[in-house]
Amino acid sequence: MSAPPATDPAVREQPAAPAVRERRPRSRFLWPALALPGAIWLALLFVAPLYVVLAIVFGGVDPIFRTPVPVWNPVDWNTAQFSDVFRHIVGDDGYFGPALLRTAVYVLSASALCLLIAYPVAYYVARYGGRWRKLVLALLIAPFWISYMMRMLAWVNLLQNDGLVNRSLRLGGLGPLAVDWLDGRGFVVILGLVYGYVPYMILPLYVGLDRLPANVLEAARDLGAGRVATFRRVTLRLSMPAVIAALLLTCLPMLGDYFTSDLLSGSPRTAMVGNLINTTVLTPGQTGQAGAFVLLVLVVALVPMLLYVRSARSEGLSS
Amino acid sequence: MSAGPRGAVVRGLAGGPPEEAGPLPDELPEHRRRSIPRRTFLSRMALLAVGGPATLEALAACAKSPETAGGSGGSATPGTLKIASPSSPVTWPIDKSALIADGLTPEKGATLQLYNYADYIGPKVVKAFEKKYAAHDVKVQVSTFNDTDEALTKIRAGKSGYDIYFPSYDQIAKMVSGKLIRPLNQSYVPNIANVWPEFTDPWYDGEWRYSVPYSVYTTGIGWRADRITDDLGAGANPYDVFWDPAYSRKLALIDDWHTAMAMVALRAGVTDINSTKPKDLEVIRDQMLDMQQKTQPKVTITMYNDLPGGQLDLAQMWSGDVVNSQYYLPKGVGPEVLAYWYPQDGPGMVDNDLMVVLAQGKNPVLAHLFLDFMLDTKNALDNFGYVGYQPPQTSLDAPSMIADGYVPENLGTAIVKQEWFAEGYRLLELPPETDAAWHQVWQQFKAGA
To answer: Are the C-beta atoms of B406 and B385 separated by less than 8 Å?
Structure first.
């Protein structure tokens, strides 16, 4: 997935941007200053909350109300809640293990399905959308006009035993094909995730594919590559950064999703790590454990994030 | 459809919006998301720090600022914790200065703020209260919470100015200790005479110094009589159905650790549903995992929608929710498809919710008047017609509830009888270590291991 684009001959020939580089010394303070709002935003909305989570994970519990008592000084941190969670992930008493494994399977399969659906759609719109491209894009964004929760609730209605989906399946003359969709099935949760997050996948892919330089594609064709070879050796490779960005944009929120499983299944047998967080954070005395899960998700999410940063950097160097 | 007061039109569609301030489409999710249910309340224990004034002060400090109170988590030693239970009733001390004087006139131009579960009070009844005190230009505003733990956290923050709160009996100890609720001036609440007499001296709040009852309910089993033709209540141990693979995936437990685990305990013959014995908990845990293997139940609080809607054949249910289910049936399906079992002649799980006046409210006089208003028989009945949860009104009896259409005849088993409260099982607060151990089993179950 992280095929370094810089090694690709097609990419190496990207025009560099010397003009930008020349200007840099003159504005040593101006440009970093422009990053200030972003830095403040990060500090206020990411670093500070993360510290609160840490203070709660390594903090205590109010003896009467059993609410978490954050401990701000790292010297006094107590790792009991943290190690408690990790003790229950692997080993004999590892009852969190299956849920974590399940999360990985669900998120990976849902992302793969998303990619299978989104890539052709984005490719079609970017390359063959023509004058309809704006309209098609608007239609693709249309689901965003309705909240995710509402769309999932709509699916609950559609997937009910006597819902529209089952009725259509029966009307197709295929006999009693009705499926008990909402009986706590893992594949329904995966399909729900796919449905919910596929627009997040289409948009970055579209942006990436739309920006592909037409002259490079033409050059590939001129030099004798067929349609398939052009796609495989030029389009696909050049769009890799967009694919990674799109995967990140969908995987990360999926990792924290609990609502899809809650609504479309409701069975503990399909619980994801988001559900573990949701149930523990609301349980008196267990809020710190929820924080430990949050940290776990964060660490897992960091890996693809670093991959992305690396690929984005190599792309930046080459352009 | 039901001839009940809300009628077919009001709740005609499964999950559909009722005509008034019921769940509008965008409010529904919140309704569903509640992951610890309204009836939850598991009685958290009446925690009483008997350690004298110093401890009480520490408690008050907790109420104000959790950061300063706990230090590294255990510095405020709670002393001996007292658990209110039917066998050891508690009468809470009163701070006389917090009592309001007799005979005050209601606050003028006030907005009375109620803090309640979603859809747990009838909008018509609220309107009627505004109308009754229209001369004082009174408005009522309902704010909602998902579960009582969340609610208590907000109340402790102290800034919201809620006047009335609808908890279960499990939180009274904490609220009294934290001075979060106001003792009642009972002269404003003559309608207390309308409710079951035990609520004038309940074990969780002797002499009803702080609370009046709001609703009563049982916990039993609801099922679709059109899909399960056996009378589930007729078996030797009706709880066994939750382990019967015949109903696999089509059944649900209430998403509340104590309510669900207590049923498992009763099935296994552990009648102390607040047991502190590790052995009992082990039995419960094994049974829960066994159930997970055999039937893969859902864990939800939307059975009042899912059972009539057909996603479930069978569910652990509160009596109020099964009564409410009749309004969520699809078109053309009558309430006769619903059935409910509760041990009519033996003890089962019974519960009740309360109304209390919060100390932070700006309108204590109106708040008292509202409590009295809700205990009025007619208003209580109107409210029953909306929420489905029975008020403990003395004048209500089973035949009249059925004749007047509040409860369909085939759900007569969901009517709560006064005598059950004498010996029914109560969910009590558990001592902290026991509580943590129970929660751990629940967590394991919920992780789907």
So the answer is: yes
